[in-house]
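Chapter review: from sequence to fold.
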Amino acid sequence: MTETEASPRRRPSMLDVAETAGVSKAAVSKVIRNAYGVSPAMRERVEAAIRELGYRPSIAARSMRGASFTLGFEIPQLANDFFTQVMQGAADELAGSGYQLFVAPAVGDVQGAPVLQALRDRRVDGIVAISPDAAPEWLEQLGVEVPLVLLGRHDPSRSYDTVTSDDAAGARLAMAHLIELGHRDIAHLTVDASPQVPEELLPHTRRLHAYTEAMRQIGAQACVVSGGPLELQARDAAWELLSGPGRPTAVFAANDTLAIGTLRARAELGLNADELSVVGYDNIDLASHPLISLTTVDQRGHETGAIATRLLLDRIRTGRAEAHHEVIAPALRVRGSTRPPEEQQPG
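The C-alpha cell string follows.
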C-alpha cells in the first residue's frame, strides 16, 4: 500500500503531547485548562509539544478550561465601512447565542500577527480575521491553537476556514459595465500589497488581474495607480492621476474607500460623472446615498460576517478540524457615478 493509499494519520492525543514534553498527562491537562500552579517552564514545554504535534484539545478539554463566550474579531483598519457591515452581520448572527464580539483593530504598527496573538492570549473561544497582514504558515499554526475563520484572502488553508468574494468575477462585472458604456481609457486604483502575504492570495490582486485582462482584451493600455488604503490617501493618488496629462475617462477603484477618495478628487477638480466615471467595490452603505450614488460591486458584507460567524461557532461547538472554503458571488449595483464618455454622449 502506498503512503497516499494508507489510512489517515492518527490525530495526536494528550498522551502524545505528554510524552513529547516529558511531563505527565495531568500536567498537559493543567496547561490546556489554564489551571493554577503551572510553571512558565512547564507551560512552554507543553505548548511547544502541542505546536510540534499539531495537537488540538478536544471539546471536553476546552470545556474543562471554561468557555469565555467571547469571539475575537480582527480588522485591519477602522476607516473602512465594509468592515462595519461585516461586523454587523456577525453581531446579528450572534444574537441570542450568549457570545460577545471582542473587536481588535490594527493600530499604527500593531497589525496582523500581533493583533491576532493578543486575541489568542486573551483566550477568546474563536477568532474571525479580515485579510490580516500575516503569513499563511503562521495562520496555519494559529488555526491549530484556536478556531479561526479568515475573510477576504484566498488561502488554501488546512486548519482554518475562509470566506471570500469571487473577486475576479466582481472585477469583470465592473470592467464590463465601463466598457459597455464606451470607456477605453480606464485606470485602476488599488492598494500596496503586503510583503507578508503571497500576492495571489490577496483580493486586490485578483481584482487587478481581472482589470488588466479586460484592458488587454479591448486592446487598451492598462494604467494602475497604487497607494495607501485610506480615503485621503486615495484622494491624493486620484488627484495626481486626474490633474495630469492624459486624464482617463473612468476609474475602477479596488474598494469603496478608494472610490470615495476618487470622487472627492473629482469634485475638487470641478469634474462630474460625464467627465469621469467611477466604480468601486464593496457596496458600503454610503454608496447608495443620493449625494454619492456610487456604482459598485456588492460583495455582501453583512452576509459575509454572518457566514463567517456560523462557521466559527460550528468549529467551536463540534470540534471540526477540516477546513471549509466559502465563496460569495458578487453583484454589480449601477448608480449615478458612471456614464458614457463625454464624446459619446448625445449632443
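Two observations follow directly from the output. Residues 1-8 have pLDDT under 50 and may be disordered. DSSP finds twelve helices and twelve strands in the chain.
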